[in-house]
């Protein structure tokens, strides 16, 4: 079997030079050089095509990993310290079950203050209780049938009906039912028709049309909180944003743009994180313009993290533009190990800064000392590849170099501005909610339905970022809608519990 050799541009030109000085006839030399160069061009085309196919497969099926130690066989990664074996029989401790019911079980024979039955000397006092967890299954929404006894007089025919207890409530679908439907649909990506089939199988029917009526009704008391969320997000110090495609069946376009998109935004300050979603015909930059219109005039321009598409930038408001290093990395073929290794050093430095909990100014100083030389080495190396004619500008690798060099300033903003991130991964994680909805429900029927989806996705994901139970939060908005309309700023995920405590009767 013929051994396969790697043919580089340098080897090709050296071989052609030797052919020129060979004693072969001119026609043979010309033919032989053409064959050698054709073989090299064919190999380049194959590699280019192979890289394009790999990129297409990653788009369709998703990349398994982009970590350097998985892509590069010779890349060495520091071994992780072995974790000590966890105690107990389960992976999660009792403190993890914050949403479960708590039942206190008293000792059947003893109580606090009794004499110790073992030593007959000491007295018993309360200590840390033993906790046992039991998980029970049930339908997402359950139903209770209240059978009110009726008594009929056999003389006058008057009927006397037992009154419903106060625990039965006034509405057929209570606030928790509406919140659960909303959370399953817009938080977990469960379409209405699937929940309908599940509920029907479990004996508690809930038609999809009824689910939509409940969700639409519950959006009204949540609307002020969503608007206040947008107003506070506009004051953020750092705003991540990105687009993903979305389908709206009955969308009416503006005559210029027929496509529909969902823009995901993540606004960060030192105190809070706010997730927002906007679905319609506007791109991310246009939605950012609408958001920054609510920003206080005396605030400095925020840092904006996005990829390098021009449609992601606001045309009316200035921002400190930062581009995503991960997007730049994805343009390179996996075989380009030198670039991957250099960028891995930068990410290692950033991980160290997070581990040491460096403040923004300290992180900037650290990156300037450790990451700036690495990035400068990368830029010099890419420029040299072009200057020495080692890379074709129109090849896949050449386009990756061009992308990095063209957007070098926003790609390296983290070396000049405190708090500037390296990549846009945070908002891409947020957009998974919209993508999950698109994969399971396929589309929104109307722009109105898309708006309700944006409203609830924004509230639910902000709850998660604030480590707040989204079900409890949505229930609170329904039960205290009057207070929410009066002061929506007091009913946001990170502070609603204080307002809830104040609203309870003494």
Describe the structure using short key phrases.
506 residues; alpha/beta; five-stranded mixed β-sheet; 19 helices; elongated
What does this structure look like?
Among the domains are: 173-296 and 437-506, no CATH class; 325-423. The chain is 47% helix and 8% strand. The chain has 19 helices and seven strands. It has helices at 9-20, 26-61, 68-71, 175-187, 192-201, 208-233, 284-292, 325-330, 337-355, 360-370, 372-387, 396-406, 408-411, 425-430, 432-441, 447-465, 470-479, 481-486, 496-503, and strands spanning 150-152, 159-161, 238-246, 260-268, 273-280, 303-306, 320-323. The strands form two sheets. It has a five-stranded mixed β-sheet, with helices on both faces. A two-stranded antiparallel sheet has the order 1-2. It is elongated and about 130 Å long. The N and C termini lie far apart (89 Å).
Question: Could you give the topology of this structure?
Answer:
Layout: H1 9-20, H2 26-61, H3 68-71, E1 150-152, E2 159-161, H4 175-187, H5 192-201, H6 208-233, E3 238-246, E4 260-268, E5 273-280, H7 284-292, E6 303-306, E7 320-323, H8 325-330, H9 337-355, H10 360-370, H11 372-387, H12 396-406, H13 408-411, H14 425-430, H15 432-441, H16 447-465, H17 470-479, H18 481-486, H19 496-503
Helix pairs in contact: 1-2, 4-6, 4-16, 4-17, 5-6, 6-16, 9-10, 9-11, 11-12, 16-17
